[in-house]
Amino acid sequence: MPKRNNKHIRGGAFGMPIKIPIELPAFKVLSEENIFVMNDKRADTQDIRPLKIAVLNLMPKKILAENQLLRYLSNTPLQVEVKLIQTKTYVSHNTPIEHLDKFYSYMEEIKNEKFDGLIITGAPVEQMEFEDIAYWDELTEIMEWSNKNVFSTLHICWGSQAALYYHYNIPKYELDKKLFGVFPHWVNDEKADLTRGLDDVFYAPHSRHTEVKKEDIEKISELEILSESEEAGVFIVATKDRRKVFLMGHLEYDRNTLKEEYVRDREKGMETDIPKNYFVNDDVNSIPNFTWRGSANIVFGNWLNYCVYQNTPYNINDISK
């Protein structure tokens, strides 16, 4: 596979922008955080082939998920052009239809395009059997399409479980109780590209009722376990060629995401425990500790740089299995 030819890229080593529509809510949010975002008109005047990244957003609160993911995709020296995708077989009831119509595409609209990267988010459906999910058939079509039309796919939480099941027949297992909080993890190989730069012990949020087991993953010679946790289990898994990457937690979460989930569950009458290692002295009225932001920047940056930019062909049409 030919590597990207850097002579086609012009610009400094830092501060390359993320390219998104100026009307997208994330444009205002990221601009106010002093993150370099660029609208379509300005980007089209530059002699740069940006990385094309598709995001299949399965989260119910899509605007919140957009803000979280785009924040980390923008924090690299690379110019990134984002295409948002939604399922056709299930329409979100938590996002204005006007927003979906304006900013999202269906798979049938982009199936003939190639992408340097794809992100498949999590979804609050983990306690259902995969085949019982309304959009399962559509999701499997997208995952199959990604084999030949995407150079590297990053899966998050339930998205990882779904992909491991579809591609490798690895099952998920119900936990005795919800894994909820921020947990310490270690790196199995400090020289691995995806985990390079992480501390010996780093933190990541988890919020899930199911898990995949280490022994099932180890049966697949194509897969590597790059990071794990004593309490949260397997965390970062990837194929040896990095064409598929799996994160079992939610590094993209904001400071208050777990707090909002806790309050939501309690208001529904659910007996959800206080998220572990999150609130100061477990005081739910305190400002939560944001202990994973640096790790999130590193992992998303490593994926964009080492798994996508350094290896995807400059001619995007050369991407294939």
TrEMBL record:
List the residue(s) that the UniProt entry marks as the site Important for substrate specificity. Answer: S207
State the Gene Ontology BP annotations: L-methionine biosynthetic process from homoserine via O-succinyl-L-homoserine and cystathionine
Keywords tagged on the record: Acyltransferase, Amino-acid biosynthesis, Cytoplasm, Methionine biosynthesis, Transferase
What reaction is this protein's catalytic activity? Answer: L-homoserine + acetyl-CoA = O-acetyl-L-homoserine + CoA
Q: Which GO terms describe its cellular component?
A: cytoplasm
User: Which Pfam family would be a valid example here?
Assistant: HTS
The cellular location(s) given in this protein's UniProt record come to: Cytoplasm
Which top EC class applies here?
Answer: transferase
According to UniProt, this protein's pathway is:
Amino-acid biosynthesis; L-methionine biosynthesis via de novo pathway; O-acetyl-L-homoserine from L-homoserine: step 1/1
Do the record's keywords include Transferase? yes
Is Cytoplasm a UniProt keyword of this protein?
Answer: yes
Which residues participate in substrate binding?
A: K178, S207, R264
Query: Site described as Important for acyl-CoA specificity, positions?
Result: E126
- Where are the active-site residues found? C157 (acyl-thioester intermediate), H250 (proton acceptor), E252
**What does the record give as EC number?**
2.3.1.31
Q: Which Gene3D superfamilies match?
A: 3.40.50.880
Question: What is a GO molecular function of this protein?
Answer: homoserine O-acetyltransferase activity
Protein family according to the UniProt entry? Belongs to the MetA family.
Question: Its function?
Answer: Transfers an acetyl group from acetyl-CoA to L-homoserine, forming acetyl-L-homoserine.
Name listed for the protein in its UniProt record: Homoserine O-acetyltransferase
